[in-house]
Amino acid sequence: MSGEDDSEIAGVGDIRMVRTFRVGAEGGLYPVNSSTAWTEGWNTATCARGRDHTPPDPGCRCGFYVYAHPSYALAQAPARQVMAVVAVHGALEAGTRGARAEKARIEAEFKADRKACDAMNGNAKDVCVEQAKGKEKVARAELDYKQDASERHRGKVAEAKADAQYAVAKEKCDDLQGEQKDVCVKDAKAAKARAEDDMKSARHSSN
Ligand SMILES: [Zn+2]
User: Fold this and answer.
1) Which is deepest, 12, 33, 105, 109, by most CB within 10 Å?
2) Domains of the chain by residue range
3) How far is the CA of 178 from the centre of ligand 1 (A)?
4) How far apart are the CA of 36 and the centre of ligand 1, in A?
């Protein structure tokens, strides 16, 4: 098949969203309600109800579901095995937490590690969740930077990394008590302040 839509050129107007997939036995990535794996490059939605229209039709529920934030995607049980950042293209039906799209392409995958946290308990679980959240934020920031290698996006990557490190470090302190915990929190804050100073000086030196 060939045509205008087979272009591999990153479209200027493409929007980046997130969604989850289940992993098939052969390793393919499947939408939860579909037996059709996504392929490399642009995937085109078809109407699952077999209606004679091009998804996303406003009066139907067809189209690739994509979300504006990983937390929305993760709320869509049970397709949580793999989180991916996808670019969407063509017709879009906007919703409150995302959109239905005609065409979509996987740009980056990262395991939805939060699923693994479900098996844990207590503070280990909290630490696990913070690590997973941080990983998602860093991955998204890195994608923005890949798309537009601006100073602002570079700063966002550094910020996401520093925030994630701080959140995890602080969460780990909950394993401690009393003075040990206070010292632990103080150390985490000091590390964050150092990271912020580094970011500031990086910004200044790039002027
Ligand atoms: Zn339809």
Assistant:
1) 105
2) 4-112, 116-205
3) 59
4) 16
